[in-house]
Design a protein that fits this description.
It is built from eleven helices and 18 strands. With about 375 residues, the protein is of the alpha/beta class. The strands form three sheets. Strands 3, 5, 6, 9, 10, 17 and 18 form a seven-stranded mixed β-sheet that branches. β11, α5 and β12 form a beta-alpha-beta unit. The two termini are about 15 Å apart. Bound molecules: nicotinamide-adenine-dinucleotide and zinc ion (ZN) (2 copies).
């Protein structure tokens, strides 16, 4: 039987994120209903609200989540009712050309639930990143669930952030950038994603980690969490400063977690010869980049973009949760505040003022489930 629950919906472009009742159908083959426990508030939710992802309103927001599996459809074997899971937006298909090449981290045909959740009047909802987890319950594809074990209840808020931005940042360093022990890394823009890249670089054994940001509060936090140096481009030229901190040569890897032409150029010129640039910030579609082709050739190395940190949730989430449990990865530091499901719009405003790494919505599962 379908279930009616509270959820956060945006009905029209730039409309408010409001609590609405939605209908969650029973799972069919390959689908799972998850009772949401926690869900982080991410820039991407706001991009949906502002119509920058598409025009398929109404959107059901939320995608950095943990939850408990409450119903499974036919043939589902990777999770069972009662499992605690992190949701992901890369349920790989196993059949597309990327998957067949053995590169499932680039899967071009990732799975979501095949049924739609709806408003009570039957209007179909488009779930943010195929998840829609600012909701008491959501319907996803089974492959969007990764089981986590031995995590205290209060850690769910932090661990759920691996579902999007924090994985993107860590993965930009360890997967896309392939940071090695003893290397130097600079990260431009240390919000949630960039700070996660700092942690990823540290985890991979980088010995010089330079955080670059215009906001001193962000630099202070990055320093607390493992960057060895900080640079504020308002005070000194970012490229010169990074070179000065790396023996005059530039960093082995520079990660652009902002995604603007000026930050990408800084990343390009602040890396050593044959170094790597990783773009993880998502550029506005109107932006273009101009770099002399002779410099692209002459500086060598690689220029890569990182989608979701090139992660494989089934491989990377359990590994990172183990590091969290072992005390090697401070995910708790990203949870700046915990809020209710009715406070998402407020949390967007807090995020826009630059006051948080993440606000996380926490829900109390109802005992009747
Ligand atoms: N590639 C992916 O799969 C993926 C996944 C999630 C998020 N993202 C993207 O990553 C980017 C960062 O997300 P976030 O959640 O960390 O956002 P955020 O707002 O928390 O952080 C952005 C940071 O960049 C800083 N900044 C802005 N302009 C700068 C400049 N010119 N020089 C230096 N610092 C500057 C800001 O002060 C802020 O600290 C966004 O574009 C987001 O859409 C990408
Ligand atoms: Zn695929
Ligand atoms: Zn996100």
């Amino acid at each position: 039987m379908s279930q009616t629950v509270n959820a956060v919906v945006v009905k029209e472009k730039n409309g408010p994120a409001v609590l609405e009742q939605i209908i969650v159908p029973d799972p069919i083959a390959g689908e799972v209903v998850v009772d949401i426990l926690t869900c982080g508030v991410c820039q991407t939710d706001q991009h949906y609200q502002q119509g920058e992802v598409g025009d398929n309103f109404p959107y059901l927001l939320g995608h950095e989540a943990t939850g408990r599996v409450s119903k499974i459809g036919e043939g589902v074997s990777n999770v069972k009712v009662g499992d605690t899971v992190i949701l992901n937006w890369r349920a790989v298909c196993g059949e597309c050309r990327a998957c067949r090449k053995g590169e499932p981290q680039y899967c071009f045909d990732t799975h979501n639930a095949s049924q739609k959740m709806t408003l009570t009047d039957g209007t179909e909802l488009e779930a943010a990143l195929g998840i829609g987890a600012f909701a008491e319950k959501t319907l996803v594809a089974a492959g969007q669930c990764t089981v986590i074990q031995d995590i205290p209840e209060e850690s769910n808020a932090a661990v759920g952030l691996l579902g999007c931005g924090i994985m993107a940042g860590i993965g930009a360093a360890i997967n896309t950038g392939e940071v090695q022990r003893g290397e130097s890394v600079a990260v431009i823009g240390v919000g949630g994603v960039g700070t996660a890249a700092v942690l990823g670089a540290k985890l991979a054994g980088a010995t010089t980690i330079i955080a670059v940001d215009l906001d001193e509060r962000k630099l202070a936090k990055a320093k607390e969490l493992g960057s060895t140096h900080t640079v504020n481009p308002k005070e000194s030229d970012a490229v010169e400063a990074i070179r000065a901190l790396t023996g005059g040569f530039g960093a082995d890897v520079v990660i652009d977690a902002v995604g603007r032409p000026e930050t990408y150029k800084q990343a390009f010129y602040a890396r050593d010869l044959a170094g790597r640039v990783v773009l993880v910030g998502v550029p506005d579609p109107s932006l273009t980049l101009e770099i002399p082709l002779a410099d692209v050739f002459g500086r060598g190395g690689s220029l890569k973009s990182s989608w979701y940190g090139d992660c494989l949730p089934s491989r990377d989430f359990p590994m990172l949760v183990s590091h969290y449990r072992a005390g090697n990865l401070d995910l708790d530091a990203f949870v700046t505040e915990r809020v209710g499901l009715d406070q998402v719009q407020e949390a967007f405003e807090t995020m826009n003022r630059g006051e948080v790494l993440r606000s996380v919505v926490e829900l109390q599962p109802s005992p009747t489930n």
